[in-house]
Every structure is written in C-alpha cells, then in structure tokens.
Amino acid sequence: MAPVRRGKEVEKRRENTVFNSSFMIKEQLDAQSVSVKDAYGDGRHVSIDVVSSAFEGQTAVNRQRMVYKAIWEELQSTVHAVDQMTTRTPAEAAAQNS
C-alpha cells in the first residue's frame, strides 16, 4: 500500500511545482506565455519556456536570472534543477513561429 501513497505524493508535488512555478513566472514577469514541464515526472526537475516583453533589451543571462528570481521559493524547497530554459520576447516568439 505504501507505493500507492508515495505515487500520489509525487503526483501532488509535481502538480504543485508546475502550477506554482507557472503562476509566479507569469505574475512577476507579466509573461504572455509560460510553460513549465516536469522533465522526469518527479516534480524536482523542470523545463521552462517563457515569452515576456520584460525580456526586451536583456541578455540571455539576465533573462534567466529574472526567471530564477521568480521561482526562487520553489528552488529552495521542491525543484532540484531547471534542466532546460527558453526565454523569448514576443517578437522573437512570433519570428520563430513564422
């Protein structure tokens, strides 16, 4: 019976991590688009894609810093690593989708 409970705990942690991270990024960066995916199904490794006008004029490193700052609380508790991060401005996203 313990494996079932642990499975439910992992699923709950995964859902909370994805929701909390998405919410914080969207709120703090006024993002037009945010995608946070659980990379391995454990809620501890995530992949992030963000489109935000807040990235205008920022270097790639500064963009990543902005995202890390938005999810700092998750990084201190639940998230172990961000495996992949894509940060784009709306213009960059539109050009990529063309």
How do the SSEs run, as a string of H and E?
HEEHHEH
Which class do the helix and strand fractions yield? alpha+beta
Query: What's the overall geometry?
Result: elongated
Describe the biggest sheet?
A: 3 strands, mixed
Average predicted local confidence, pLDDT: 88
CATH superfamily: BolA-like
CATH topology: GMP Synthetase, Chain A, domain 3
Helical content class: 40-55%
Beta fraction? 15-25%
Written account of the structure:
By secondary structure, this protein is of the alpha+beta class. The chain has a single domain, classed as BolA-like (GMP Synthetase, Chain A, domain 3). The chain has helices at 2-29, 60-70, 72-77, 90-97; strands at residues 33-38, 45-51, 81-88. The model has no long low-confidence stretch (mean pLDDT 88). Belongs to the BolA/IbaG family.
